[in-house]
Amino acid sequence: MAGGGVVLANNGKQFEGKVTPFVLVTCLVAAMGGLLFGYDLGITGGVTSMEPFLIKFFPSVYKQMKNEIASTNQYCKFDNELLTLFTSSLYLAALVASFFASITTRKLGRKASMFAGGLFFLVGALLNGFAANIEMLIIGRMLLGFGVGYCNQSVPVYLSEMAPPKIRGALNIGFSMMITIGILGANLINYGTSNLKNGWRISLGVGAVPAVMLCIGSFFLGDTPNSMIERGQKEGAKKMLQKIRGIDNVDEEFQDLINASEEAKKVEHPWRNFVQPSYRPQLIFCSFIPFFQQLTGINVIMFYAPVLFKTLGFENDASLMSAVITGGVNVVATFISIFTVDKFGRRALFLEGGIQMLICQIAVGSLIAMKLGVSGEGSFTKSEANLLLFFICAYVAAFAWSWGALGWLVPSEICALEVRSAGQATNVVVNMLFTFIIAQIFLSLLCVLKFGLFFFFAGFVLIMTIFIALLLPETNNVPIEEMNILWTSHWLWKQFVRDVVPKHERKDSN
Q1: CA nearest neighbour of 107 among 37, 154, 146, 156
Q2: pLDDT, tens digit (0-9, with 9 covering 90-100), for 266-288
Q3: Please, are residues 147 and 250 in contact by the beta-carbon 8 Å criterion?
């Protein structure tokens, strides 16, 4: 059922509109792009802990894992550069793809990028499922990376532009919701196929299913009014705006979109302008939010959950089931974020999540230190393993309703149209760069830093929580085309952006 109401921004500007079934269904279909990213995040760790997969592609890792003498140091069981390259190559490819996706998203529209992302992921998943050698496996991973790069570039922007301001947070977090569902689905499939001879083929090949869903779904999506105006389709853009708002009188909001587009057209080089002082806060947040998101240590859990639990002494089935449990917590916590982000705002979730993650990282590091010490020799009793799993789940929950969801929402909603593609591309590039780095070095870091790795990540959680507390203004309930006004009343950012915001639009103007 559509809900009526008036969107009231912090700056006093109102846009009438309803929350229509059309926009809800459209955003749900678009958010399926998150399934691709989530499925890959969840599937990798389980596959790399399956013995038939290791025997075929990474026999040296299998021998190292089975060697009783070498495996007494639990921290170093899976330390192998080629194995981590299998995981991290996808994110390096996604980084490269983001630059091309930025151009596609701007010139051809958001839905064209989503279709391209689904197509790349489909081919990559099929190559991985039928892989006969390591080269075929890595090429498939890189194509998956192109798919992830295109979807992560286009979907959050699409959702932010389609959603009414008062529920923009909830609808945008649909992308994160689909990521968590993809992770949980992958964990369940890994658990079901772990004892099959070629179960890893099923796990990798099933990635084609969400890719097909996105490709088909993108044909039925309408493009965003912002994108249509940007490409000169003003009449169609107005009709689309009327359809997604559920009313005929959209003149004021439509004029705002046209004004933003006209200003955007004056910008010949979005990337060059994005690094100018007037866009300094957007550049900072589009760079540091994805940077900090990866240095929470979440990929320790999401990439390598089964490997990590196996390293800490869990049996194979137990390690996969533990990954399923954390995946389930991830989904539930993201639902909490959907229902609270537009009620309590972005800052509150960021700060609470940061504090909870900090406590959990310290607790996990301390438990591992007490049981495995520096030598890496030892194991957990059932009760101790359950306590460790509890703190990991509490950490995953905190990440899911804070940095996991908001790490995609905030960068996608704070940039003006003229630099929006550049801003989202920056967000994806930084995210993929540090996802690649963490994925590539995590197993080596675990071997070298041991339990200290969790304290290392806890230090970054403390820094990023302070960063949000000092520098991020509340973006809740602010129309996306009016976001620039926020910076003019901030103690730091006003000195960069004040001169470029018209006087009549300043929050503190008379």
Answers
A1: 154
A2: 666 677 778 888 888 999 999 99
A3: no
Whether residue 445 contacts residue 306, with contact meaning beta carbons closer than 8 Å, is answered with no
Distance CA 408, CA 420 (A): 13
Can you give the pLDDT at residue 17?
Answer: 61
Question: Which backbone phi and psi does 3 adopt, to 5 degrees?
Answer: -110, 135
What does the pLDDT look like over 434-481, one tens digit per residue? Answer: 888 887 777 777 778 888 888 999 999 999 999 999 999 998 888 777
CA dihedral 250, 254, 255, 261 (to 10 degrees): 180
Tokens found for residue 121: 């992921």
Element (H, E) at 8: strand 6-8
Instruction: Locate all alpha helices (DSSP H) within 194-297, ordered by sequence.
Output: 199-205, 208-220, 225-230, 234-245, 251-265, 270-274, 280-294
CA 297, 298, 302, 308 torsion-angle sign: positive
Three-class SS state of 14: strand
Among residues 424, 404, 405, the alpha carbon closest in space to that of 414 is found at 424
Question: Using CA atoms, how far apart are residues 102 and 377, in angstroms rounded to an integer?
Answer: 48
Rounded Cα gap, residues 210 and 72, in angstroms? 40
DSSP element (H, E) containing 15: strand 14-16
Classify each residue of 302-326 as buried b or exposed e, where b means 16 or more C-beta atoms within 10 Å of its C-beta. Answer: bbbbbbbbbbbbbeeebbbbbbbbb
**Cα 373 from chain centre:** 33
Alpha-carbon gap, residue 503 to 510, rounded angstroms: 9
The answer to whether the CB of 176 falls within 8 A of the CB of 405 is yes
Cα diameter, the chain: 76
- The answer, as to whether pTM is greater than 0.85, is no
Q: Which residues of 252-263 are buried (b: 16+ CB within 10 A; e: fewer)?
A: ebbebbbebbee
